[in-house]
Specification:
Blueprint (H helix, E strand, L loop, with lengths): L29 E5 L3 H13 L3 E5 L2 H10 L4 E5 L7 H11 L1 H5 L1 E5 L5 H10 L2 E4 L4 H13 L1
Parallel strand pairs: 1-2, 1-3, 3-4, 4-5
Length: 148
């Protein structure tokens, strides 16, 4: 995992090249992370902020919807299993509010999802990240979700 803006993996000590990822430009890209596990939100925040993204977090769907009403986000990372509704239900509400954000949404889960759910993620969102994930997976998937 990246622990600093220098792109150094603290587990191996190896440098990670982050050039070319969307968050490294002069204008920060805003990402909303929706996950009821604070450690996951903190980890994703650390990875993304070290790569130049602006990050906001929400522990549930209601908090996410409130933030989306109040702010503009360029992308979202949503856990499938939220305490107040699942990720697909949340995503459907986001689609009604901001179709562009909905298309730039990554879904995450530590549990195996059905083929139907995975198909939904790929058609209506920006893709799926299985937990646990690697730094490069997160950055590459987010880049793909934003830039197509």
């Amino acid at each position: 995992m990246i622990a600093s803006g220098h792109g150094t993996d603290i587990l191996s000590g190896e440098r990670t090249d982050l050039t070319g990822f969307v968050g490294t430009g002069s204008m920060a890209i805003r990402v909303l992370i929706v996950d009821d596990e604070p450690d996951i939100v903190d980890l994703l925040r650390e990875i993304l902020e070290a790569s130049g993204f602006e990050v906001a977090g929400a522990p549930d769907a209601r908090g996410a919807l409130e933030q989306i009403k109040a702010q503009i986000f360029d992308a979202a990372i949503i856990d499938f299993n939220l305490p107040d509704m699942n990720g697909v239900m949340l995503h459907r509400q986001i689609r009604q509010m901001d179709e562009e954000l909905a298309q730039r949404t990554l879904f995450t889960s530590g549990q195996v999802q059905s083929d139907h759910d995975l198909d939904y993620y790929m058609v209506y969102g920006g893709g799926f990240l299985s937990k646990p994930f690697e730094v490069e997976q997160v950055l590459t998937a987010l880049d793909k979700a934003i830039n197509g």
